[in-house]
Structures are given as C-alpha cells and as structure tokens.
Amino acid sequence: MLKVGVTGGIGSGKSTVCRIFECLGVPVFRADDEGRRALDNEDVKEQVIALCGESIVKDGKLDRAKIASVVFNNPEKLQKLNAIIHPKVREAFAEWLKKQNAPWIIEEAAIVFESGLYQTLDAVIVVSAPEDIRIKRVTERDKISETQVRERMKNQLSEEERVKRADFVIVNDGNQMLIPQTIEVYKKLSSGKVN
C-alpha cells in the first residue's frame, strides 16, 4: 500500500484537494484534525497546560486560539507542543492504517516536511497557492488578522521549498482548475508512479 502525503501552506486548499481524492475513493487520514482531537486527551491536556499556562483553559477545555497565540510566537514552545501531540497522531494513524485495504492512502498534514513525516511516505503532493490568496482565505475562514496568519506562516517552510521537495504539485490559485489536476495525480498514483 502506497502512503502519500498531502501538504501545503496554511490556506493552500489541502482539505479541498483531499475531498476530491476521497470522491475518487482514496482513504484520507487528516493528521491536523487528529492533533486537535488529541487535545481532549487528559494526559495531553495536562502537558499542554504545563507548557502554555492556565490561561489557555476556557470552560474546562483547551482554547486552541490561545494556544496558537502562545506557540506561534515561540519556536521552542511550538516544538515542545508538537512533541506532545505528534506521538498521539502517529498512534492514531497506525490504528487507522490497519483498517485500510486500498492500493494507496493519503495522510493530510500541514507540516509533512517540517516534522520529518515525509521520510515515512512514498510520495508527497504539495497544494500550492500564492501567499496573498492564502492570507485572504485564512483571515476569512478563521476570523483572524493578517498578522496572525503571517505568524503561523513563518513556522512553515517557504512555498518555494515545499514545491521543490514535492513529488507532485497541485496549483490552487483560483485560475487553474483543481479537479483535472487532482485526477491527473490520482491516475499516476493509481498506476504506481510516485513521481
């Protein structure tokens, strides 16, 4: 079974591309969603509070926006947060993978290269979009400022570096059609071509 990563900068449209792949019958594991679920784990919750402080707790739950405001300005804390959450995500992926029987699967994750995840994958698809479009999408979607989006962006690889490392690139700039590009990659991967 081929393991394929889908990544891209914040606001690039990774999730949209993954929904197209799902419509084509490819199972998708969403690492970022699993990471959010991990915050409900009591052990994880205690470690995150110890790392970020009590101010991140709201109504007995961890406030993701407050966590983001703490870690995205502090690379050391971001690294420690990832070290708390990533093992839980890897465990969940291993369990999920046991239940799959497709010829290939996708793991969608924002930091495929930054986390070293790419080393466990057979191919990586990068969803690419210009920075101004990504900023606009995220400010509208998450109701946050451009400054906050840029804070998150600086913790990710540059667009150029991601594209350079990709086996496949799907451009989501609003001009090129997503579905035909995704189908083209689907055909190649379904025939076993990993780059």
CATH topology of the largest domain: Rossmann fold
N→C terminal distance: 16 Å
State the helicity in percent bands: 40-55%
Count of structural domains? 2
Largest sheet, spatial ordering of strands = 2-5-1-6-7
Q: Please, what is the oligomeric state?
A: single chain
Structural class: alpha/beta
The fourth-level CATH homologous superfamily of the largest domain is P-loop containing nucleotide triphosphate hydrolases
Kindly describe this structure.
With 195 residues, the protein is of the alpha/beta class. It has two domains: 1-27 and 103-190, P-loop containing nucleotide triphosphate hydrolases (Rossmann fold, 3-Layer(aba) Sandwich); 32-99, Rossmann fold, CATH 3.40.50. The chain has helices spanning 14-23, 31-38, 42-52, 64-71, 75-98, 131-142, 146-153, 159-165, 178-190; strands spanning 2-7, 28-30, 57-58, 61-62, 104-108, 123-128, 168-171. It has a five-stranded parallel beta sheet, sandwiched between helices. Strands 3-4 form a two-stranded antiparallel sheet. The protein is globular. The model has no long low-confidence stretch (mean pLDDT 92).
